[in-house]
Design brief:
mainly alpha, 2 domains, 4 helices
C-alpha cells in the first residue's frame, strides 16, 4: 500500500517538475527572445504556453490528491527535479532542431551563445581574482 502510494507520488512529482520546468523555459525564452528555447515559432504563443504549463503542473500536483505523507526525501526529490529539468531542456532543443530542419545550425548557435557568455563573464572573474590578490596582500 505505502509502496504503491510512493510510486504514485513519484510519478506525479516527475510530471509536475517536467511541466513546470518546460513552462519556465518557455517563459524565459519568450522574455529573452531566445528562439532555441521556444517550442512554438511565436514568442507570444510560447509565453502563453509557458503560463499554461506552469498552471497545469502546479494544479496537477497540488490539487489532484491528498498524499498524506509525513515527509519526502529531499535528496531524492532534487534528483528527480534535476532529471526532469534536463528532460525539459532536451525537449526544447529537440523542438528547435525540428523547427530549423538541421542540427548543425543549432549547435553553431549554441556555441556562439556559450562563447558570448564566456566573454561577458571574463571581467567578473578578473575582478574576483583582483579582489582575492588584494585580500591576500593585506
Amino acid at each position: 500500500m505505502m509502496r504503491d502510494m510512493l510510486a504514485t507520488i513519484t510519478a506525479h512529482y516527475l510530471l509536475f517538475t517536467f511541466l513546470t520546468s518546460l513552462g519556465l523555459l518557455q517563459l524565459a525564452g519568450a522574455r529573452s527572445k531566445t528562439r532555441h528555447l521556444l517550442l512554438l515559432d511565436s514568442v507570444r504563443a510560447s509565453a502563453a504556453l509557458g503560463v499554461v504549463l506552469l498552471i497545469a503542473g502546479y494544479s496537477f500536483f497540488l490539487e489532484i490528491a491528498d498524499y498524506g505523507l509525513p515527509g519526502l526525501e529531499g535528496a531524492q526529490l532534487f534528483f528527480e527535479f534535476l532529471l526532469t529539468a534536463i528532460a525539459a531542456l532536451l525537449v526544447c532543443a529537440g523542438a528547435n532542431v525540428a523547427r530549423s530542419g538541421h542540427i548543425g545550425a543549432s549547435r553553431r548557435a549554441l556555441r556562439r551563445r556559450i562563447a558570448a557568455s564566456v566573454v561577458e563573464l571574463r571581467p567578473l572573474f578578473a575582478r574576483r581574482r583582483q579582489l582575492r590578490v588584494e585580500d591576500e596582500a593585506t
